[in-house]
Amino acid sequence: MRPKWTTRILFKNLRPLASLFSEDLAIDLGTVNTRVYARGRGIVINEPSAVALDETTGEVQAVGKEAKAMVGRTPSKIRVITPLRDGVIADFKVTEKMLAYFIQKAHQRRTLVHPRVIISVPSEITQVERRAVTDSAYRAKAAEVHLVEQAMMAAIGAGLPVTRPGGNLVVDIGGGTTDVALISMSGIVYSRSLRIAGNHMDEAIMNYVKRKYNLLIGERMAEKIKIEIGSATALDKPITMEIKGRSLIEGLPKTITVDDSEIREALNECVAAIVTAIRVALERTPPELSADISDRGLVLAGGGALLKNLDKRIRDETGLPVCIADDALCSVVLGTAKLLNDFRLLRRIAVD
What we know:
alpha+beta
C-alpha cells in the first residue's frame, strides 16, 4: 500500500504537468475582431474575425489577419467570410473552424489541449444564438464553455466597481452591436443591445461617398476614413483626406478629397441612434441609481468609443460626465480574463 505522503507528492507533481495540456482562455468573439486572452500569458490573439475558404474543396485557406488581407483580392473560387453578423453567429460551420484555429493558435498548436473557455456575447442574444456559440466552442475542443455578457465584461475591464451597490452605466460600441447596460451588485439592472455600431458607420460612409461623388470605395477605405477624420461633433481644426475608389460613371480609378464635416454628416444617423439608446437607458434607471450615475457618469468602451468627440456629444446631450476606458479596444476581453481567476463571480454573472 502506497503511503499517503507519496500520493500527495504524486498529485502535487501532476498539477504542473496538467497545466501543460490545459490553459483557460477568455474570448471576445467580436463581429470585426476576435481577441483571446490566455491565463498567465495575456492577450495572445487580436485578429480579424475572418476566414478564407476554397469553395471548391471547402478547405480553409487562411484565418484572421491573413484572411482579412485577401478581401477583394482573391480568385472567384476563394471567398473571404466574416462568420459573425451584428455580434451573433451567421455561419455556424465557419465560426467553428475559426474558433478551432484561434484556440489551437492560443495554445501554440498543441492539439491535446482542452481548455476551459469563457466567451463574451451581446446582451440580447437569443437562446438559439447562445447555443450556436456554445456548440461551436465545444466542437473546437473546449472542455468547459461559459458565456458572459459583453457589457458586463466591458465594465469589469474598465475597472468599474460592478460588485458593489451603486449604478454603473457602460456603453460598449463594437463592430456589430452597441451594448448599453446599467450594472449594480454584479447584476444587470437594464440592458439594450443596439445593432448599430462600427460596421454600420463604415457602411454609412460608403453610401455617402457613392451618393454624393459617384465613387465606389471598399470597406477598408471606409474604416480608414472613419478613424482618420470621422467625428461626432465639430473638430477644433478642420481635417481633409484624399480617398481613392472607382468612379461609377467612368469605371476608372479616381481620387477625391473630403473633409471632416462631410463624414460627420454621413455618421450622424448612427451616432444619433447610439445617443438615443443612452437616453432611453437613463429614462428607465431607478431613481436611487440615477443619483449614482449623475455623480459617476458613464464609461465608453469598444472601438467605436474612439470616434473623435463622441464623448463630447454624449456629454452635451445627456449632461453626464463621460469617460473613455483606458484600453477601450480590449476592455471586453480584459474583463472576461478577470473571471478566469474568479469563478465565484463567474457563476454569479454567467449567462444561463
